[in-house]
Design brief:
There is one protein chain. The protein has 5 helices and 4 strands, in the order H-H-H-E-H-E-E-E-H. With 132 residues, the protein is of the alpha+beta class. It folds into 2 domains: 57 residues, no CATH class; 69 residues, no CATH class. The chain has a 4-stranded mixed beta sheet with strand order 2-1-3-4. Strand 3 and strand 4 form a beta hairpin. Helix 1 packs across helix 3. The longest helix is centred in the middle third of the chain and has 18 residues. This is F-type H+-transporting ATPase subunit delta. Keywords: ATP synthesis, Hydrogen ion transport, Ion transport, Membrane, Transport. It is found in: Membrane. InterPro entries: ATPase_OSCP/dsu.
Length: 132
């Protein structure tokens, strides 16, 4: 669904109303905003909800870290990765560790739209692209 400028502006205002002074999303506020919007149904409320949902999804993704490795990581290495990412992105990150043997080695870390790919597979693909 295409979102016009007014709906996007309204969605951003709603998003600002749902975060605290530290910039953290407050779930009770989100529920209250969505409930009120659904009850009042202002003009273009579906487009506003679509824009608001997109902003919420992006905010939630910023608080989620996915760490992929070719083999299982030791608990000390997991703790070190957690500490490093929390120092960079804040202590309220949620972590998911996954094993992907196709990476061959190294790590791939994704936090929101930030991706660090230090896997052997990525290096091989980069080398292949540079040779062709």
């Amino acid at each position: 669904m295409k979102i016009d400028k007014n709906s996007a502006r309204a969605a951003r205002q709603l998003m600002r109303a749902c975060v605290d002074k530290n910039g953290r999303l407050q779930q009770p506020r989100v529920r209250a905003v969505v409930k009120r919007l659904a009850e009042e149904k202002p003009r273009g409320y579906l487009r506003i909800l679509a824009g608001f949902e997109r902003l919420l999804r992006l905010e939630v993704e910023k608080r989620h870290a996915l760490i992929e490795s070719a083999s299982p990581l030791s608990s000390t290495l997991r703790d070190k990765i957690r500490a490093d990412l929390q120092a960079k992105f804040g202590t309220d990150l949620e972590f998911d560790f996954a094993e992907k043997p196709e990476l061959l080695g190294g790590l791939r870390v994704q936090v929101g739209s930030h991706v660090w790919d230090g896997s052997v597979l990525a290096k091989l693909e980069s080398l292949r692209n540079s040779l062709s």
